[in-house]
Design goal:
The protein is of the alpha+beta class. The chain has two domains: 149 residues, no CATH class; 162 residues, Histidine kinase-like ATPase, C-terminal domain (Heat Shock Protein 90, 2-Layer Sandwich), CATH 3.30.565. Helices cover 64% and strands 14% of the residues. It has ten helices and eight strands. The longest helix is centred in the middle third of the chain and has 80 residues. The chain is rod-shaped, with a radius of gyration of 37 Å. The two termini are 48 Å apart. 27% of the residues are buried. The model has no long low-confidence stretch (mean pLDDT 84).
Length: 354
């Protein structure tokens, strides 16, 4: 369907513009002394509305003869032929219409038509060429919009692919550490290893359910973190303490399993090397449009250097934040007085706190 016919508002604006053309044509006919004002208006206004529908064909001509890939001579010849044909059709309608209304104004319709025939034909050609030019402009604009849409779609697909790859990277890294922990317990504490397997199964089931969602509330993310720490507490017992607080940020939306690598690092590279253990803290707060999340854990300054999969967790979180929010999200990590400190800042998406 022709775009102008799809919406009544567009059609109304289109017809209004043609009525203005009719007013200008009325002025032209009366200004040249060809017709009286009343008769000129009765002729020009209906003719303009009628010609507006004839000029709709310019839309299809512009698509059938695109500027790209079509010779200039061919486009020009087609445009002139279409304009002449459309103007000739307009003259036929004008002759019939003037014959019908002329008696009401006491005018000889045939003679009046002969007086303005040449002017109408010229005006008709010019108006059709104008309509065709506008159609070509719209074609170029639509092509630009479509190219922009395809570009944005490609960017979204690329970002989603990157996020899926990063999300998939978490699972084997996490499973490797968890299975290593279970293996360490099988000899020293078989019942603990069995309990850890059950908790691990529950955690994986919950993480798979959340992983199918693009974003979850921070409250659900922290609940999943607590499940993970419950698994680790089987191995570390009272050496592992937990302090989690969401404050006014619990309804903010975050990617699923965003914090899990940070907490895993806190246990594997922090608590595990502390004879007396320590507390893993995860604190979140919302400050206007910014969500700030801090993860802390005590660390031994003389602990062995990280190897193997070290750094995967932080790199993964940083890459996911960059893919989702670009420069609007940051991750800073470092050691401060035997405390490993990680701070995330990202846009606070979600329901405003009451």
């Amino acid at each position: 369907m022709y775009p102008l016919l799809a919406r009544r508002s567009h059609l109304a604006v289109y017809l209004l513009l043609w009525l203005l053309m009719g007013a200008l044509l009325t002025t032209l006919l009366t200004g040249q002394g060809l017709l009286a004002w009343g008769f000129a208006a009765a002729v020009a206004l209906p003719l303009s509305v009628a010609y507006s529908f004839i000029c709709l064909s310019a839309w299809y001509v512009s698509r059938g003869m695109p500027l790209a890939g079509t010779g200039a001579i061919r486009v020009l010849f087609t445009a002139m032929a279409a304009a002449a044909l459309s103007s000739a059709m307009w003259l036929v309608f004008a002759r019939v219409w003037m014959a019908l209304i002329a008696p009401r104004f006491g005018v000889d319709g045939a003679r009046a038509f002969a007086t303005i025939e040449t002017v109408l034909f010229g005006v008709g050609v010019l108006l059709y060429l104008l309509a065709l030019a506008v159609s070509y402009v719209l074609v170029v604009f639509e092509a630009s919009q479509e190219a922009q849409r395809r570009g944005l779609q490609a960017q979204v697909l690329a970002r989603e692919a990157e996020l899926r790859a990063l999300r998939a990277q978490i699972d084997p890294h996490f499973l490797f550490n968890s299975l290593h922990s279970i293996s360490a317990l099988t000899t020293a504490d078989p019942s603990g290893a069995r309990r850890m397997c059950l908790l691990l199964g529950e955690f994986l089931r919950e993480s798979l359910a959340l992983g199918s969602e693009g974003r979850i509330t921070l409250k659900r993310e922290l609940a999943l973190i607590e499940r993970f720490l419950a698994i680790e507490r089987v191995r570390f017992g009272s050496r592992l303490q937990v302090d989690i607080s969401a404050g006014n940020a619990q309804d903010c939306l975050v990617p699923p399993l965003l914090l899990q690598p940070l907490v895993e690092n806190a246990v594997t590279h922090g608590i595990a090397h502390m004879l007396e253990g320590g507390t893993v803290r995860v604190l979140a707060e919302r400050d206007g449009g910014v969500l700030r999340i801090v993860a802390e854990n005590p660390c031994d300054p003389e602990r062995p250097k990280r190897g193997g999969g070290a750094g995967v967790g932080l790199a993964n979180v940083r890459a996911r934040l960059r893919a989702l929010h670009g420069a609007d999200a940051t991750l800073a990590a470092g050691e401060r007085d035997t405390v490993w400190h990680v701070e995330l800042t990202l846009p606070a998406l979600g329901v405003e706190p009451s």
